[in-house]
C-alpha cells in the first residue's frame, strides 16, 4: 500500500539519515495523465504537505517500506538497525539490531507481524515485530540480496540478488521452492501480482521479467527502458505494472499486451521508487532529483 510516500532511502544512502513522510494524497482523481502533485525538497509551496521527519538512524537509510494497513513503516540503515515507526504519531516504536551485514532491503509480512530483510551474504532474516527477535533464517550462503517481497497470500517470500538470481521460499516450511533465472545483472526490485500467481522482477539489464509461480516458468519479458530498471509495482487490479528507471522515466505497462502504455518524463534524475495507491487511481514516484511526483493513472 502506498501510504503517502516515504522519502529518504531512495536518495543517496550515505548522505541521508532522515525519513520524510508526506501525508497520503486524498484529492479527487484528475483527468490528466501528467503530474497531479509535486513535492520538491526545496519547494515550500508544494501541493503536498510534509507530515513527519523520522530521525534515528546513525548512518544512511537504505530501505523503507510500509505495512499493508499503511499505519506502520520500517526502515533499515547502514548502522545495521531496523526501525519500526508509527505513522499516525510519527514515533519510533521498535528498534531491531539486525547486525552489521545482515540488514539491507526490508519488507513487512501481510499481517504486519514480521519483517523480512535481505543481507549481504544472501540469507533472508525474518524478525518478529513484537519483540524484535530473529525468528527465521531462509537460505544458505549466496550473493548479496538486493530486493525482497512477500506474496499477498502470505505464503511465500521472493528475493532478488546481485547476480541476477531470484529465489522463492515457502514460509510455512522455510524451504526453497524455486530458483528462477533469466536476468544477467542485479535484480533491484520485484513484486508479486495481487493474486500471488505471478512475480515481476526489475533488473540492471534493462528488462522486466514475468514468472509463473506455480510452474516456475518465465512467462514473458518486457523491454523499453534505456537504463537500469530500479523499481517495479503491480496495480491493485492485476492489469498493469509501473516501473522506475535510472533513465529518469516512469513507465506503465499493460500486462495483457506486455507493452508500455504510457511514459512519464517529469523527473530530472534516476527514479528510485514507484508505487500505486490502494485504489490504483494514482501512481507516485521518487527520484534522485529530490522530488516526489504523483500522477493520475492513464486510462
Task: Tell me about this structure.
There is one protein chain. Mean pLDDT is 84; it is low at 1-35 and 41-45. The strands form 7 sheets. This protein has a 4-stranded antiparallel sheet with strand order 2-26-25-24, with no helix packed on it. The chain is built from no helices and 26 strands. 47% of the residues are buried. By secondary structure, the chain is mainly beta. 0% of the residues lie in helices and 49% in strands.
Jot down its keywords.
single chain; 299 residues; mainly beta; 4-stranded antiparallel β-sheet; 26 strands; disordered N terminus
Task: Write down how many β-strands occur, each being a DSSP E stretch of 2 or more residues.
Answer: 26
Strand order of the largest sheet: 2-26-25-24
Rg, Cα atoms, Å: 18 Å
Low-confidence stretches: 1-35, 41-45
Helix-and-strand structural type? mainly beta
Name the average pLDDT: 84
Strand content: over 45%
SSE order: EEEEEEEEEEEEEEEEEEEEEEEEEE
The 3D shape can be described as: globular
Largest sheet: 4 strands, antiparallel
Task: Report how far apart the termini are.
Answer: 21 Å
- Total helices: the number is 0
Amount of helix: under 10%
Short recap of the structure:
0% of the residues lie in helices and 49% in strands. It is mostly beta strands. It has a four-stranded antiparallel sheet with strand order 2-26-25-24, with no helix packed on it.
Secondary structure elements and pairings:
Layout: E1 18-22, E2 35-40, E3 50-55, E4 61-66, E5 72-77, E6 81-86, E7 91-97, E8 106-108, E9 114-118, E10 124-128, E11 134-138, E12 145-150, E13 156-161, E14 166-170, E15 176-180, E16 187-192, E17 198-203, E18 207-212, E19 217-223, E20 229-234, E21 240-245, E22 250-254, E23 259-264, E24 271-276, E25 282-287, E26 291-296
Antiparallel strand pairs: 1-3, 2-26, 4-5, 5-6, 6-7, 8-9, 9-10, 10-11, 12-13, 13-14, 14-15, 16-17, 17-18, 18-19, 20-21, 21-22, 22-23, 24-25, 25-26
Amino acid at each position: 500500500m502506498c501510504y503517502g510516500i516515504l522519502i529518504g532511502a531512495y536518495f543517496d544512502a550515505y548522505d541521508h539519515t532522515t525519513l520524510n513522510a508526506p501525508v497520503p494524497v486524498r484529492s479527487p482523481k484528475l483527468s490528466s495523465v501528467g503530474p497531479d502533485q509535486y513535492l520538491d525538497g526545496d519547494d515550500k509551496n508544494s501541493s503536498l504537505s510534509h507530515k513527519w521527519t523520522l530521525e534515528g538512524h546513525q548512518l544512511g537509510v537504505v530501505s523503507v517500506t510500509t505495512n499493508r494497513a499503511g499505519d506502520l513503516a520500517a526502515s533499515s540503515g547502514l548502522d545495521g538497525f531496523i526501525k519500526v515507526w508509527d505513522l499516525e504519531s510519527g514515533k519510533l516504536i521498535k528498534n531491531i539490531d539486525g547486525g552489521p551485514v545482515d540488514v539491507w532491503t526490508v519488507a513487512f509480512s501481510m499481517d504486519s507481524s514480521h519483517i523480512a530483510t535481505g543481507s549481504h551474504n544472501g540469507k533472508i532474516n525474518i524478525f518478529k515485530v513484537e519483540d524484535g527477535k530473529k525468528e527465521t533464517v531462509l537460505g544458505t550462503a549466496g550473493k548479496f540480496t538486493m530486493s525482497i517481497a512477500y506474496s499477498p497470500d502470505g505464503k511465500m517470500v521472493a528475493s532478488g540478488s546481485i547476480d541476477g538470481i531470484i529465489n522463492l521460499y515457502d514460509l510455512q516450511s522455510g524451504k526453497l521452492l524455486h530458483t528462477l533465472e533469466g536476468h544477467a545483472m542485479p535484480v533491484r526490485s520485484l513484486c508479486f501480482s495481487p493474486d500471488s500467481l505471478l512475480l515481476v522482477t526489475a533488473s540492471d539489464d534493462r528488462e522486466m521479467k514475468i514468472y509463473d509461480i506455480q510452474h516456475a516458468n518465465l512467462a514473458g519479458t518486457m523491454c523499453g527502458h534505456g537504463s537500469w530498471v530500479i523499481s517495479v509495482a503491480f496495480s491493485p487490479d492485476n492489469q498493469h505494472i509501473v516501473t522506475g528507471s535510472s533513465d529518469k522515466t516512469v513507465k506503465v505497462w499493460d500486462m495483457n499486451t506486455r507493452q508500455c502504455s504510457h511514459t512519464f518524463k517529469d523527473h530530472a534524475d534516476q527514479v528510485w521508487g514507484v508505487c500505486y495507491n490502494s485504489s490504483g487511481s494514482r501512481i507516485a514516484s521518487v527520484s534522485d532529483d529530490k522530488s516526489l511526483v504523483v500522477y493520475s493513472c492513464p486510462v
